[in-house]
């Protein structure tokens, strides 16, 4: 039940978002917590919440929590992150930062990861690196490319492909692998909905599934 308490605490802090510039909170309900093509909830639903602060100079810091199900006593994940983001005069966006994945039920699973990304219009590419991915004491990198293409009537086309490699990936999955997804998004009022098909090319693994997600960010009406 501690995972529910931590989400509830983030919920209480959401009220601060309405009163403080630069503070926001995003709440997400998804039919499956998908992480690089791999389910983190045994294909069961997840409730997720974040609390974020963004400064005018591009610096941001935040925390994100979700329930998980690894078939062990670990029930939830809390990610802490910070970084800098900005955009050039030509519209090229950039983002660099650090995220720390924490599992309060078993701190031996904790590990850090750094990332950097470039984005332009509807396309984004991101590179991640960890020297201790999945608490394996081995390194990994992940190349993430995605596109969100606007469509008429508040719809959008969602496409993603990722590549995981490194000694840690060999330990966990036997070899490097690719994950990909294709779906559609829809904006209605203060809510973002998405429906996507997800799969990987991991040999002898049934990873294909359809995931539905609904999310909203507080405070509502914030530009």
Automatic annotation (TrEMBL):
Descriptive protein name: Uncharacterized protein (TIGR02001 family)
Signal peptide per UniProt: 1-21
Keyword Signal in annotation: yes
Keywords: Signal
Domain of life from the UniProt record: Bacteria
Source organism (scientific name): Povalibacter uvarum
Short name of any one Pfam family annotated for the protein: Gcw_chp
